[in-house]
Amino acid sequence: MSMEFTDVVWLDEQHEVSFAELAELSGLSHAELSELVEYGVLMPNNPQATPWTFGAHSVVEVRAVCRLRDDFDLDSHSLALALLFLNRIRELEAQLRDLRSQQPLL
């Protein structure tokens, strides 16, 4: 019987991760992450600053994109499109929750 130890990182809304940390936590290469930033679907907190930092929510997004890349053998253009769609779905789900909360209960 073998045991596997894993590092745990607690992420909250105020937490920031560096570009290198995002690459390590996501499984995407530096080049793939740079392309996602170049395409405008992954936004650093301050694009003019170096090195880039990202909000903690970016870790969840790029991990999902990494799984899609691995499962469907997607190129960087397809990854950017997938991330764009995932973000849009999250926005629409939030709007739907807001609208449902405003409806009177029957």
Structure description:
This protein has 106 residues and is mainly α. The chain contains 4 helices and 2 strands, in the order βααβαα. The protein has helices spanning 19-26, 30-38, 57-72, 76-102, and strands at 16-18, 53-55. The protein has a two-stranded antiparallel sheet with strand order 1-2. Helix 3 (57-72) crosses helix 4. The protein is globular and about 50 Å long. It starts with 15 loop residues before the first strand and ends with a helix.
Give the arrangement of secondary structure elements.
Blueprint: E1 16-18, H1 19-26, H2 30-38, E2 53-55, H3 57-72, H4 76-102
Antiparallel strand pairs: 1-2
Helix pairs in contact: 3-4
Task: Describe this structure in a few short sentences.
This protein is mainly alpha-helical and 106 residues long.
Share in β-strands: 5-15%
In angstroms, what separates the terminal alpha carbons?
55 Å
**Broad structural category:** mainly alpha
Shape call = globular
> From the alpha-carbon coordinates, what is the Rg to the nearest angstrom?
16 Å
Order of helices and strands: EHHEHH
- Tally the helices: what do you get? 4
**Unreliable spans:** none
- Biggest sheet, spatial arrangement of strands: 1-2
Helix content: 55-70%
Mean pLDDT across the residues is 88
**Main beta sheet:** 2 strands, antiparallel
The total of beta strands comes to 2
